[in-house]
Each structure stands twice: as structure tokens, then as C-alpha cells.
Design brief:
The protein has a seven-stranded mixed β-sheet, with helices on both faces. α8 crosses α9. The chain has 286 residues and is of the alpha/beta class. It folds into two domains: 35 residues; 224 residues, Vaccinia Virus protein VP39 (Rossmann fold, 3-Layer(aba) Sandwich), CATH 3.40.50.150. The radius of gyration is 21 Å and the shape is globular. The N terminus is likely disordered. Helix content is 40%, strand content 16%. It starts with 12 loop residues before the first helix and ends with a strand. Bound molecules: S-adenosylmethionine.
């Protein structure tokens, strides 16, 4: 449109906003695609795509991943154990798919609602520097987790996990019981000896949250909305329950912090042990 007085073209505010929205959406799309490409191509994880890997099955699992899962299975005794893990944990293949997606190599992997630490073991196999779990249930899980780590070390002559890798599970800890704040503040409180603040987006989070109360879900999302050092977070649960859909998650986080830049990256079909429920693992990035 032309401004006849000045001779310059001018665009109405409505058109400007439309243009801005389009550019932002395109930017988001582009960065989403770039991140996805990065996640697929970088690091040590198998470079095969999800579909190709599904066909290949366990053959694509690294020796460290296989060792971790074998030891995990050996430590069956415990409440609600169904042979694969505590009832309702991810199957080995699903866990492998999630790790391939989020690429925790060199990062701090945090599992919120970690149970006996199966996700943490997988993170170590995918070369996370730190694997930290927070769990509501009792101390026995901590003892079991440490025993599994020792079992893996024994089996691999202390080659895996490496001496630089840190693994810690904190039980008897309810994520709703902390003062509101960001993820780093939660980790400093829970792991004063293990967690170190450092610049950059070095934290990846996983939460298999189908058993969480709505308060626990909101407490986690509120914290994530205020976090600066989190690269991505993955939520696993039924789509029809509270915050089961990506849009609900994004809307809630935006309400908590309007400057939060989070967006959805991917959605993977995953399966739980025991009942065999099929859920989506939805990954978001900043
Ligand atoms: C389905 S299990 C997932 C276990 C583990 N992440 C895995 O995939 O193997 C969910 C866990 O979240 C824990 N949980 C539920 N509410 C929690 C809360 N408010 N704070 C911490 N952990 C919680 C439960 O005790 C349970 O062990």
C-alpha cells in the first residue's frame, strides 16, 4: 500500500502483525526442523531413523545399553516388579528410542519420577555426563540403584560407567514440596554434591508421568517454564489425561511465563512394561 503524502509505501498494523506472525512461525518451524536434524545426526547414538531401527530391533542397541538392561533385569526383586522393571516403566526398546531422540551425550540427564533408575542407566549408556533421578518412593530404590551401578561396573571391569560419569538417585522426594523456582535450583537442593551449574543448555529432562497428580504435573511444568539451562524435556503419558496433549503443555507453560520459548519437537510412540500401555513420548525444546 502507498502513503500518498510521503510517497513511501506503508503497511497497516494488521498487515505488519500478520507478517510478523508468519516470520515467527516460519522461524519456529525452521529451528524445529534444524534441531530434529541435529538430534538425528549428532552424538554417538545409532544414526538410523526410528522406523529403520524398529525393523532392526535390539541389534541396534550398543553393548553398554545391553549390559545396563541385563543388569537391570537381574535386579528384579522389589515391589511391583514385572520382570522388565517396576510396573509401568518403559520397555527397553522404547527407552532406547527416547534416548536416541534426546541424545544425552555430554549432558545432565534428569529423570523426574525415576523409580529404580532404569532411565538413568540408559542415559549412562548414551554417555550422559550426569544422570540424576528424583523419586517419591522410599530409600530401598536408592540402595538397589547403587547396587545395579556396581553390578555394571563389575561386569565391564569398570570401563562403563566411566569414572567421569556421575549417577545419583534421590528418593523420598516429592517434586511438589519444593519452593517454586527453576530446574537448576531444584537440582542444587537435591544433589548439592553432584550437580554443577554451568552455562549453556546442558540439561535434558525425562518424566514418565502417567502416575503424577495434577499438582505434580503443574509443579514440573511451572519449573520448566522458568528454566534457562534446559535443552529439552520429554513427557510420557496418556494423551487423554491432564496435559497429555502438547498444546495443553505449551499453553500452561506460557501462562506461567509469557517469555517461555518452548515448542514441540517430536512425538514417539512408546510402550510400557507389564500392562503394555501405548503412550506418546513428547519432546519439547527451547
Ligand atoms: C511410571 S513411574 C516411571 C519410572 C521411571 N521413570 C521409568 O521410566 O522407569 C513414575 C514414578 O514417578 C514417581 N512419582 C509420582 N509422583 C511423584 C512426585 N510428586 N515426585 C516425585 N516422584 C513422583 C512414582 O513414585 C513412580 O515411581
Amino acid at each position: 500500500m502507498l502513503n500518498f503524502k510521503s510517497g513511501k509505501s506503508f503497511v497497516s498494523n494488521k498487515e505488519k502483525n500478520k507478517k510478523l506472525l508468519k516470520t515467527t512461525t516460519n522461524k519456529r518451524k525452521r529451528s524445529g526442523i534444524e534441531l530434529k536434524k541435529k538430534l538425528e545426526s549428532s552424538s554417538d547414538g545409532p544414526s538410523t531413523t526410528f522406523e529403520a531401527k524398529k525393523k532392526k530391533g535390539n541389534n541396534s542397541h550398543s553393548p553398554n545399553f545391553k549390559t545396563a538392561m541385563t543388569i537391570f533385569k537381574r535386579y528384579c526383586p522389589g515391589l511391583g516388579h514385572d520382570g522388565d522393571g517396576l510396573y509401568g516403566t518403559l520397555t527397553n526398546n522404547s527407552l532406547h528410542d527416547i534416548m536416541t531422540e534426546i541424545q544425552p551425550k555430554g549432558k545432565t540427564l534428569v529423570d523426574i519420577g525415576a523409580a529404580d533408575g532404569k532411565v538413568l542407566l540408559a542415559g549412562l549408556a548414551f554417555q550422559a555426563n550426569f544422570t540424576l533421578g528424583i523419586e517419591l518412593a522410599g530409600d530401598a530404590l536408592e540402595i538397589k540403584f547403587n547396587a545395579m551401578i556396581n553390578g555394571i561396573k563389575k561386569k565391564t571391569n569398570s570401563v562403563f560407567p566411566t569414572s567421569e560419569q556421575v549417577a545419583s538417585l534421590k528418593c523420598c522426594t516429592d517434586i511438589t514440596s519444593f519452593k517454586s523456582g527453576n530446574t537448576s535450583e531444584l537440582l542444587i537442593t537435591c544433589f548439592p554434591r553432584s550437580f554443577r551449574m554451568k552455562p549453556g543448555k546442558h540439561i535434558v529432562i525425562c518424566a514418565v508421568w502417567h502416575g503424577f497428580t495434577i499438582t505434580a504435573k503443574q509443579s514440573l511444568l511451572k519449573r520448566l517454564a522458568k528454566s534457562h539451562f534446559v535443552k529439552s524435556f520429554t513427557l510420557v503419558g496418556p494423551q487423554l489425561k491432564d496435559y497429555g496433549k502438547p498444546d495443553e503443555v505449551l499453553e500452561y507453560m506460557k501462562e506461567q511465563n509469557p517469555r517461555c520459548t518452548v515448542y514441540k519437537v517430536s512425538s514417539l510412540p512408546v510402550k510400557l512394561s507389564g500392562g503394555g500401555e501405548q503412550y506418546q513420548a513428547i519432546t519439547f525444546a527451547y
